Amino acid sequence: MLIDTHINIHGEAFEEDLEDVLQRAREAGVSPMIAICCRLSEFDAVLQIAEAHDDVMCTIGAHPHHAKDRPDITADELVEIAQHPKVIAIGETGLDFHYNYSPRADQFPSLRAHIEAARRTDLPIILHCRDADEEMADLLEEEMGKGAFRPLLHCYTGGQALARRAAKLGAYFSASGIISFKKADDVRAVFRDVVPDDRVIIETDCPYLAPVPHRGRRNEPSYLPHVAEALARVKGWTIEQTAERTTRAARTLFDQLPDA
Length: 260
Ligand SMILES: [Zn+2]
Fold this sequence. Notes:
This protein has nine helices and eight strands.
C-alpha cells in the first residue's frame, strides 16, 4: 500500500465524484490519505470528509497564500482544533515569496504560531516553501533551538542548501508529481543526493501537479503509484522497496494514521 500524504479534496475539483475518486485510490493500493486544510475557514469542510471516511485523516492550518486572512492566528486556537481525533498534523503553513498572495509580514507570524502548535501537540507540521529557502532554513533553525518539533517539507522543490539544513534538523521531505516532470532534474538531484532514505515520503497534492503520464489533467490519489515509480528511479530502488520505505517513513512521521 502507498500513503497519499497530501490531498486537497474539499474543493470544486472533486465536488461531482469524490466517492469514485476515493474508491479508485483504494483500488490502486493508495490508502490511507491525508486531507489538507489550507485556510481556517475551510476546516469544517475538510473535517466533514475525514469524518465520513475511515481512511481519510485531516490537518489544521493556513497556507501562506491565506496567512493574510488571519495573521493574528494563535497557537492556542490551532492546538484546540487539533484535539479532534481526525486531526493528525498541523499545516499546511509556510513561506511563499513567489506569489506573495499574503504579505511577508503576515506569513512569518502565522508560520511561527503553527510551529508553536506543532511543538505543543507533538503533531508533525506540513511546510510549504517557495522562493524562500534561506528565510525558511534560518527560521527552522531558530525555532528548533526553542524546542523540538517535527517538520515535513512537502512537495519539495527547493534547493540543496535548504534540504541539507532541514535534514540536519530531522525534517522529512515529500515528493510529488514534479519528480516525474521532464525539466525537474534539480529536484531529482536533491532527492537523490540530499534527502535521507528513511525520511522521504510521497504525495499527489491533487488536484494539482498530476504526474507523467497524466500531466496537465486533474490529479487524484490513484495516480500516486506514478510518483512512487519516479522516486524509485531517482533513488535506484525497486517499486517494492519504494512502497515499503515511503510507507514506513509516513507512518513514523504521521504516527496517528489508521491502518490501510
Ligand atoms: Zn504547498
